[in-house]
Amino acid sequence: VHPGFSSKQFDYSQKQRWREEKRAELSVSDDQCLIGLITSGSLDKRNIDLFIRSIAALNPKLRAKCKFIVSGKDSKISHYKKLAGSLGVTNLNFIGMIPDVEKIYSALDFSVLPAKWEEFGRVVVEAMGLGLPVICSNKVGASELLEGKSRELIFETNNIDQLTKCIEKLVKDQGFRQEVAEINSKTALKYTEKAQAEKLVEMLKQQN
């Protein structure tokens, strides 16, 4: 039984209000695409290097329409900032640990988790709960929750070309982005804390 997410904390009905509030705080305009790598743990494990290199590999005109944020704790932040600078990635902001992660998700247009490995990755289902498309590597356990066209956004770990193409597709194709967002918000309802608790109880009853 997969870990569930809090539908109370990640309340889809509050998304638009949170989105406007947080994007204003981050100085992101309506016509900009905000893309985030959100985690509470190691950025190295989540493959931040690959994320930065994929941003650098984007078509320059397309990259100029975007802003990127990274949330997470890591002792090598200065290294990642230097890497971004050396690759000419100037629209990437490291925001550290954040208490109101649900508002950050709401501000995003889509989320990326390019982890080298991830036992589950609750951030995937949290983002889905707030109606976001999610790009993730095939080493992320939660990738198996993705359904339909959302599965087109699973890429092979460390494959920068595949990751870059996934990002470009979501930035350029708003129709696809909206379609995947709707799929994910419906899928996430199957994995709330309440739903997962009920599944666990039912499983234990069957074993007895």
Number of strands: 6
Coarse structural class = alpha/beta
Gross geometry: globular
Instruction: List the helices and strands in order.
Output: HEHHEHEHEHEEHHH
Could you tell me how far the N terminus lies from the C terminus, measured between alpha carbons in angstroms? 17 Å
Helix share bin: 40-55%
Strand arrangement across the biggest beta sheet: 3-2-1-4-5-6
> Which residue ranges are poorly predicted, with pLDDT under 50 across at least 5 consecutive positions?
none
Q: Average the pLDDT over all residues and give the rounded result.
A: 95
What's the story with the biggest beta sheet?
6 strands, parallel
What count of helical segments does DSSP give?
A: 9
Per DSSP, what share of the residues sits in E-state strands of 2 or more residues? 5-15%
User: Roughly how many Å is the radius of gyration?
Assistant: 17 Å
Structure description:
Helix 2 (48-57) crosses helix 7. The chain has a 6-stranded parallel β-sheet with strand order 3-2-1-4-5-6, sandwiched between helices. It is 45% helix and 12% strand. The chain is globular, with a radius of gyration of 17 Å. With 208 residues, the protein is α/β, with parallel strands linked by helices. Strand 2, helix 4 (77-86) and strand 3 (92-94) form a beta-alpha-beta unit. It has helices at residues 15-25, 48-57, 60-63, 77-86, 101-107, 122-129, 160-172, 174-188, 193-207, and strands at residues 33-38, 66-71, 92-94, 110-113, 134-137, 154-155.
